[in-house]
Every structure is written in structure tokens, then in C-alpha cells.
Amino acid sequence: MKNPLEKKICPYCMNVISKKSVKYFCDCGKEAVRIGFPKKLQCTDENCTSRRYRMTCPYDACKSELPTGILDYNGYLRFSLIGLSGAGKSNFLTAMIHEMRLNSTGRWVISHMNPDTFEAYRRNEEKMFTHHEPVPATRRGSIIPQQWSISDTQNSFLGKMPVYSLTIFDGAGEDEKSVEPVIANCIQGSKTLVILFDPLSIRQLENSMDKNIYHWSTSSNPNEYPDAMITSLTNYIRNCLQLPPSQKIKKDVAVVFTKIDTLKKDFENSVVMQESPHIKAGGFVEQDSIEVDNQIRSWLKKNGQDAFLGVINKDFYPERVRFFGVSSIGNPPVAERTFGVITPHRVLDPLMWMMYRENIIPEKTKQLEGK
Ligand SMILES: Nc1nc2c(ncn2[C@@H]2O[C@H](COP(=O)(O)OP(=O)(O)OP(=O)(O)O)[C@@H](O)[C@H]2O)c(=O)[nH]1
Ligand SMILES: [Mg+2]
Ligand SMILES: [Zn+2]
Ligand SMILES: [Zn+2]
């Protein structure tokens, strides 16, 4: 269970907020104050009859409306999806929320905290799961952090159901040159950085794979130097954190290989291609996750990408890094911009790892088939 005394943070500017510091505004636009016993909100205009109030961030540069209940959550998970354009961030996020909503065996209930979050998700979900098309590329300037809450319906803390706040930031493909303040804030405030990497961006794979599948799965050009791509990303993170090159980045890092469906030939029946065990086990199966981590690292080495691992080791603390393999659609696309049946594969693994690291879910051992 999480520490209920954990600092509360504004999900937009990432500054610390508290019950005392937040501001309230009445529907009429005037400030509202908490008075009486028990404390009740009241408009500062004595003649106002409105009874609807908004809670806002106290920082002048932010003043964003805060999701109701933000001060009462049991824990906060905040992560940013970072990756070059076309890495698969938005399809991954959509599949992840979709799986949490529909396939988490009823234990976890995920709810949006504001209408914008749900609308952003709904649009992408419809594209992917109804029309079987990839979600559109994310536009710069249109980025909002998504605010979700996760309720653990099978647990209780002092008689209450634990609820965790989940702030997710899905940016437009990162490039080193420009760092927008909203992105820098989100990266600074993230506990975990989720670096998404498209294995198809490794040039040599282009020739070892079905040409159609390759082209239907990539929207960017392959690259001779995947390690340099990772360096661009870590430089970008450093810029956001204003961190000199001599210091490692002090964050948990999930390095997520996307589009793993296109590598079935390479991974065959290995663990990464098998169904994820975590949700079924009701916790985090550390052993499974370590096996997946090893398999992805070995695959990189086999494909001559030791330098990739070198950059990760140099820029992050090795004990805070975990590799994952996911497929947001489960199978390669069947035509240009067309998905077939969508069966997301292991898309909840990185989130479950974060929940495990935050003591929200326990460690479980691997269950044998049929048990
Ligand atoms: N085979 C396969 N292709 C995928 C998968 N996920 C995404 N793709 C392909 O990758 C393309 C880019 O995916 P996006 O999720 O839009 O990538 P992004 O990182 O959000 O890109 P930007 O918004 O431009 O930063 C999609 O148009 C799909 O063609 C997957 O799981 N498998
Ligand atoms: Mg995107
Ligand atoms: Zn704020
Ligand atoms: Zn009023």
C-alpha cells in the first residue's frame, strides 16, 4: 500500500500543492473560500447563489483546474512516454488504457479525471479498435497530460478503496532541438520515463522481413545508428531536467520495444511472445519480467546493438532500468494503415512494473500452466 502522506502534485505544472494552498473559484468567476465547521465552500460574493466551485492550482503561472479528488489519492504514478516520431507511443497508450478498462479481470477500474482526457482517449480508441486504423500522429501544441485514476476494488485501506492517480504524458515525437515548457515540466515531474523504441528503426531489419509488413508498420526512416537515436532522446531528457552530461538521469526507466509482433520469427516461443502473467497472478511476476528484459537485451546484442545498451548504462542507473517488449495491436498490420484483429500483447507490463515499484501491487511467483 502507498504512503498516504506522499506529497500531492499539480498534474499540469508539477508543483507541490496542499489542501491549504489550492484555490477555489465559484462558477461566477469570483474566488470561493472554505469557512465554517465542518468547512464548506462559499463564494466571496455574498449575493451569489451559485453552488458550483472549481479547485485550481495556486501557482500563478499554472492556475489549471485540478481534478476533483486529486488531494485524496493513495498514490501517484506519473510517467512520460518518450520516443522518436513513429515509435508507437500513441497506439501503445491507447491499447494500454483499453486493456486496463476491459481486460484487467475486474480488479482494477480505470476512470478519467476530466473530460479532455476521456475525449483524447476515445478518439484514438475509436480509430484503433473500431476502424482498425493507426491513431493519427500527435501534433505539437495539442498535448495535454492525460489524467486517470485507478481504483483497486479488491483492497481496502482504513475502510476505503485505494485509488491511485495516473498522469500520463504522450508527446509528439521528440527531437533535441525544441523543448516546450509543458514537456519539460512533465518530464521533470515524472517518476518513470517510458522510452519507446521501434525495433524496425534498425536499418538491417528492413532486409530480413516481409517488405509489406515492414512498410505498413513504420512511418519513419530506418536508422544506421540506433544508439545515436537513444542518445538524442537522453540528451533531450537532460535538456528538460537541466542535467549536465556528467550526471546520470535519476529516474526509473522502462525501455519498451514496440511492434514486437513483427519480430515473431526472431523470438518464436520465447517468454516475450507468451501471454503476460501479471494481471492473472494479481501482482507483478518479477521473474517473468526479468526473463523478458534478458531476451530483449540478447536480441539487441545479436543484432549488433551493444552500443544501444552502452548508452542506456551510461545515462541511467542500471538497477532502475527494465526492458519490455509489447505489441499494441498483437499482429502486424494487414495493409497500409489497416490493422486486422487487435489483440494487444503485454501492453500492461510497464504499468504493472511501475505499480510494483510503488508498492501498489505485490510480487508474485510464476504460476505453472494449468495450476
Ligand atoms: N506492427 C505494428 N505497427 C505498429 C504498432 N503500433 C504502432 N505501429 C505503427 O507505427 C506507426 C506510428 O505509431 P504511433 O503510435 O502514431 O507513434 P507515435 O510514437 O505516437 O508517433 P508521433 O505521434 O509522431 O510521435 C503507426 O501508424 C503504425 O503503423 C504495433 O504494435 N505493431
Ligand atoms: Mg503520437
Ligand atoms: Zn499547477
Ligand atoms: Zn459566485
Distance between the termini: 27 Å
Count of all domains: 1
DSSP strand count? 15
Assign the CATH topology: Rossmann fold
Q: Kindly state the mean pLDDT as a whole number? A: 90
Ranges where pLDDT stays below 50 over 5 or more residues in a row are none
User: Fraction of residues in helices?
Assistant: 25-40%
The radius of gyration is: 22 Å
Give the ordered list of helices and strands: EEEEEEEHEHEEHEHHEHHEHHEHE
Which second-level CATH architecture applies? 3-Layer(aba) Sandwich
Q: Report the biggest beta sheet as strand number plus sense, adding barrel if it closes.
A: 7 strands, mixed
How much of the sequence lies in strands comes to: 15-25%
**Full CATH superfamily name:** P-loop containing nucleotide triphosphate hydrolases
Enumerate the strands of the largest sheet in spatial order, edge to edge or round the barrel: 8-9-10-7-11-12-14
Computed structural class: alpha/beta
Describe the structure.
By secondary structure, this protein is of the alpha/beta class. It has a single domain (71-364), classed as 3-Layer(aba) Sandwich (Rossmann fold), CATH 3.40.50. It has ten helices and 15 strands. It has helices at residues 89-102, 115-130, 181-189, 211-217, 226-241, 264-267, 278-281, 286-302, 306-315, 349-357; strands spanning 8-9, 16-17, 23-26, 31-35, 40-43, 53-56, 75-82, 108-112, 146-152, 163-170, 192-197, 252-257, 284-285, 321-325, 363-364. The strands form four sheets. It has a seven-stranded mixed sheet, with helices on both faces. A hairpin with a 6-residue loop joins β1 and β2. α1 crosses α2, α3 (181-189) crosses α5 (226-241) and α5 (226-241) packs parallel to α9. The protein is globular. The structure holds guanosine-5'-triphosphate (GTP), magnesium ion and zinc ion (ZN) (2 copies). One zinc ion is lined by residues 10, 12-13, 15, 57, 59, 62, 64.
